[in-house]
Amino acid sequence: MQKGGRPLEWEPHSHPVSQLLSVQRGVLKVVVERSAWVVPPHFAVWVPAGTVHTSRATARCEFQATFFSERESFLRPREAYGVTVTPLLHELLERLAAEGISQMQRRNIERVLFDNLDPASHDLRVRMPRDHRISPIADALRAEPGNRTSLEEWASSLDVSSKTLARIFQNETGVSFHSWRQMVRVQSALEQLSNGSSVALVARSLGYAQTSTFIDAFRRVLDVTPGHYRARALTV
After folding, report:
1. Which of 162, 163, 158 is nearest to 132 (CA)?
2. How far is CA 89 from CA 114, 117, 224, in A?
């Protein structure tokens, strides 16, 4: 378990074995190639062996980096993905972190763990586009998630049709422009709420005219209200 009283950041690096980054308090930002996750409590990210990634932990973040045996590392998925940390998965991770377990015990625990390492229903991932025609939009929204410029307005300023931009966004990120912007806002909300910001303040910072609209949008993605998430993130 790693704990920090201030934000921490790790430069691009990789490991010879696979790891699972799980969070107990605060949020951890993990970037793998074109994908960025904001990982809140009860979630994790699977990072395969040899995968270059960066990480940034918010102040007071508590997270666990679990490394797996070489054999299991190369039998498992070769792509990073988000994971929901169920009570069973949490217990298995605690057992792996315990001192004095034998190689046989570790191997058996890992096998059970991998049987329960299912992709999260809410991946909390934002895929960054490469196409130069929409890179300015993506960069602007990542820098200012509350930016309310419409796709039509972006199209006008970039001298390209809105249909073309919509098609590129779908092809590059796998989701529509509106869904992509929504996830960028959710990621920002997770960070702000974990740092103690009020729900109303977060809603305003993300460009919502009504706090209730923000609450509904947040709940559609995470199945909990931002108030419930904030309380849980600050007390776990």
Report:
1. 158
2. 9, 8, 21
Q: What is the pLDDT of residues 13-32, one digit of tens each?
A: 999 999 999 998 888 999 99
Phi then psi for residue 188, to 5 deg, are -65, -40
Number of domains into which the chain is organized: 2
6 and 100 share one domain: yes
Please give the structure tokens belonging to residue 34: 């074109």
CA pair distance 103, 122, nearest whole angstrom: 34
**Which H/E stretch holds residue 38?**
strand 35-39
Both 97 and 35 in a single domain? yes
pTM: 0.86
Residue 76: domain span: 2-115
Percent of the chain, pLDDT > 70? 95
Let me know whether 142 and 227 are in one domain: yes
Q: Are residues 203 and 148 in the same domain?
A: yes
Residue 191 Cα distances to 20, 131, 136, angstroms: 20, 27, 23
